[in-house]
Amino acid sequence: MSQVLRERAIGMLTAGMSTRAVARELNVHFSTISRLQRRFREFGSTSNRPHNRKPRVTTPAQDLHIQRLHLQDRLRPATRTAVATIGLHNQRTRVWRRVGERFADVNVVDRVAHGGSWVQVWTDVCYGQRTQVHFIDGILNAQRFRDEILRPIFMPFTHDHHLMLQHDNARPHVARICTQFLEAKNIPVLAWPAYSPDMSPIEHVWDALDRRVRQCVPVPSNIQQLCTAIEEDWTNIPQPDHLCAKEMCCTA
């Protein structure tokens, strides 16, 4: 409640109105009025009590500025990369069952241990553009990331475009040879907080691809079929849905 409403509520209570009557008048829950009355009797004030919480990092004016920057969409020219996983043996399956039928055979689905084999895929997408998927054989280290992705794929994609790169803090991405390469090419990199995959605004893109792959008929049963399905479904996702870029791990 605002300070004005608090003082108004105390005035009504002092005038003899009940807590429920005041709550109805101010359109708040009666327990709120009850706590306010109890606190006023104990401390003689309706103001917030002093607390030991950490002070705010930003001022209200700075918060408003951040909101305006968000509305202006200053990251529209950003091109992004990240990591995701698509598994063909861990589908999102919903089951409608009666109480006590949790382990009935009809409600149990067989799974492949450890998710089966997998392929690594890298793509790059920014506002209005995207690359084709690039499949990575084996472990992607910093040197391979620079020589197989940044130099032959990413740089031609950013040619004649003033783009900002956003990717997570995976070791190949933040390795010295990769950061030095991007600095030499004058590619700005958006700083990304550590351990914050859920902050990525492009999770919905990979969710859309994941759903499309799972809906393939027939369902991919090997690596080659999975790669083909990923390529086709990636191409068929409407471009407005691709707002960022990502590197992902797909499981067969």
TrEMBL record:
Please give the Pfam families that the UniProt record associates with this protein: DDE_3, HTH_23
Coiled-coil stretches: none
Domain of life assignment:
Eukaryota
- The signal sequence is none
Domain named Tc1-like transposase DDE: residues: 87-215
Among InterPro entries, the record links this protein to: Homeodomain-like_sf (IPR009057), RNaseH_sf (IPR036397), Tc1-like_DDE_dom (IPR038717), Transposase_5 (IPR052338), WH-like_DNA-bd_sf (IPR036388)
Q: What SUPFAM superfamilies does UniProt report for this protein, alphabetically?
A: Homeodomain-like (SSF46689)
Q: What is this protein called?
A: Tc1-like transposase DDE domain-containing protein
Q: Which organism is it from?
A: Cirrhinus mrigala (Mrigala)
